[in-house]
Amino acid sequence: MDLTQGSAAEKNARAKKMMLWFGIVSLIMGFAGWTSAYIVSSSREDWVSELNLPSSFYVSTLIIVVSSITYFLAKKAIRENKVGLCSKWLGVTLVLGLAFILFQFRGFSQMVADGYYFTGPTSNIKLSYVFLIAMVHIVHVAAGLISLLVVIYNHAKGKYGPGNYLGLSLGETFWHFLDFLWLYLIVFMTVVK
User: What's the confidence (pLDDT) of residue 126?
Assistant: First the structure.
């Protein structure tokens, strides 16, 4: 496929999709580095292998999976020109995204209540990685929520329709990436003791 061919709109859409995928690949590389450091550090003498992740992290996992489904349903609705239904699914996705962050912070509170801290005399290297990896993911979910708010705003302005929903599609792709990334991270931190 010749990337120089097509209308200006097609070239613009390809460029936006390519930029999104470059960003996703760079995020994958960053998280691959942190999880690799986690594995390397697990051989340290002060590594706490019996530590379990807080239950709120598992609840937030269910929430983010459901939010990916609702974002998918929003895109499906706009393809079928069901504008009101798309609005509802986007709103549900926003609420679920905020709930994900809330449960992540509840997980941090659970760890602190159990006497585990990010830094200080009662911290340990494993917990520092758990806090770091989860917090960096939360920052990216916050970015996903900002992009979702832009999608909701553009949708309210009538910018999307059955043949024109690039912004919604890009937002959905990024959201699904965040979902799959968290699934990988929660499985990784659960399995790698």
Answer: 84
d(C-alpha 60, C-alpha 155), whole Å: 27
Task: Supply angle C-alpha 72, 142, 116, rounded to 5.
Answer: 115
What type of residue sits at position 55?
Answer: S
Phi-psi group of 81: left, alpha or beta (phi > 0 → left; psi -120 to 50 → alpha; rest → beta): left
Q: How many residues make up the chain in this entry?
A: 193
Task: State the 10-residue block means of pLDDT for the chain, 193 residues long.
Answer: 69 89 94 93 83 92 98 97 97 98 96 81 82 94 97 96 93 97 94 85
Q: Which CATH number fits domain 8-191: 3.40.50.700, 1.10.150.130, 1.10.10.10, 1.20.120.80?
A: 1.20.120.80
161 by DSSP, 3-state: which?
Answer: strand
Task: Tell me what pLDDT residue 3 has.
Answer: 55
- Partner residues linked to 161 by β-bridges: 164
Give phi and psi for 88, each to the nearest 5. Answer: -65, -45
